[in-house]
Amino acid sequence: MCWMMGISGENMAKKLSRTLTIAGNQGMYSFLREVDHIKTTWAVKVKVVRAYELPPQARGGQRMELVLMDSQGEKIHGLIKRPQLGLFRSKIQENGVYAIREFLVMDNYYTYKATTHAYLIEFYGKTVVKDINPDVVPNSVFDFQQFEVLQTLRVVDDKQLMDVVAKVLTKVTPQNHVINGKPERLMELTLEDADGNRLGCTLWNNYIDQFLDYYEDHKEDPIFVIVQMCRPKRYKGIISVTTCYDASKLIINGNTTELVDFMAQFPAEERDNGTLTTLAANSQLESREDILRGNVSITMIADLVKTTEEGMYWILGDVVSIENIREWCYLSCNTCNKKVLPEEDRFLCVSCNLTLPEGILRYKITVCVMDDSGHSSFTLWDRECLDILGKAAAKLRKEVEKRTGDANHFPEDIEAVIDQRGLFKVQLKSRAESNSYKGSISYGVISMITDQEVLKVYETQRINGKGLEELSDVEKSASTADNMECSTGQTKIVEVYELEQEQEDGITPTQSERKSMGFEEDENLK
């Protein structure tokens, strides 16, 4: 949407004025919001936002799928089946603007919805398509979703497709899988918006080829993308997106107005410089199968406190108290997530050597975690706190100020972290630069897993010293697992792709739906 792209009020007013003029010139034509199945004599003026053809072997047969948009920004799904393809294929092109009349209207029965319209339209022999002035419909065709809003949603409709625009931070080497006897490929990206918020993105099959073909010729350049009609998915409160069969469209460093406007929000050095980081897909990460089978080594807190060896350690424990009630959040750099310092009316990030007009409020909650051997201080960062509390730090602070009149008042909401049992993956760093170095350590939480099924595995081990011989139901759920590191800012320990047989046509292809599961790990830039 326009406001998401930072378009000025003046430009917004111009667009609104033009939209009102268009509305006044509708004449015999209807708006898409008025279209229903009561009649077939509808006439509309629309732009083809998306057009793609499915092959003969697709479920439902060969056909062309369309997404159409009118002057009000309303969209509807369009369908041209094989018998009519020869009649309309040459008349309909993506980004073309047409007057269309005489078409069938039916319920939108697609599993994955390209629009929110209750109906879809189908072309048939009497349908008339005519080229018209392109100015009749606005050029902007995307409904960009804000990353920060996405990550704080309590409920996300994983069947409703959406658009995202972002800078690509990292890519993982492509993975090969055999799903239902058919070879499939996937590649993980980490996306970042202009405010420093991050989102995981999975590319499948042909989208990987498109991305890598571009990347091979532009390895020294930053990459900005629009992923049109992608599908959201959630695990453990963390939302990512994935391409959706043939429906999605990947626009890379294009000259579309929306992409140019988005890139302009970044400092010049970030637009013109900066290469993409490539991460190995199997880089010393625990797989879901390892975790579920009890193969991950659990360290007791008493042993953690004694050791001076740097590395990653898993702790099974309970949060028993909050230690920093006065400093539960901090103002951070929107690039590296580290704390910024006030400098007159701006903020300085020492790490990036940048002066910023504003910072982003993020969680930093120090808690006391206890197990059977002892207790110690752990720091929960933004991702873990978002998962537990369900709202961004900035939103919580505003709510506190509204309730109490004091933005610095400690929010009672944060007490929700107390009594949380979890598997904590902590990073042990030695303060070697200290002259009095004696193994002094800092415990930063990289990931906090609260899944009861997983906790049951390690609690059982602690009680009877056994593995998962008696937990066959858990063992079975770990049938397929692969390691995938997503980014320096966000790590996916694993994704397990299961199969769900689909009955619908259209966006749902011959393959079954891939359902993503896995443990989301957040490696904050601290």
Give short descriptive properties of this protein.
526 residues, alpha+beta, OB fold (Dihydrolipoamide Acetyltransferase, E2P), 7-stranded mixed β-sheet, 6-stranded antiparallel β-sheet, 12 helices, 29 strands, 19% helix, 35% strand, elongated, disordered N terminus, disordered C terminus, Replication factor A C-terminal domain-containing protein, DNA binding, DNA-binding
**Structural class determined from secondary elements:** alpha+beta
- Average pLDDT works out at 78
Query: Main β-sheet: number of strands, strand sense, barrel status?
Result: 7 strands, mixed
Order of strands, main sheet, comes to: 5-6-3-2-1-4-7
- The Cα radius of gyration reads 26 Å
For the record, the count of structural domains works out to 3
Known CATH architecture of the largest domain: Beta Barrel
Question: What is the assigned CATH homologous superfamily of the largest domain?
Answer: Nucleic acid-binding proteins
Oligomeric state of the chains present here = single chain
How is the CATH topology of the largest domain named? OB fold (Dihydrolipoamide Acetyltransferase, E2P)
Q: Which band does the percent of strand residues land in?
A: 35-45%
Counted beta strands: 29
Number of helical stretches of at least 4 residues: 12
Measured distance between first and last alpha carbons: 32 Å
What are the low-pLDDT stretches, counting only 5+ consecutive residues below 50?
1-24, 432-440, 465-526
Helix coverage percent: 10-25%
Text of the CATH class of the largest domain? Mainly Beta
Give the overall form.
elongated
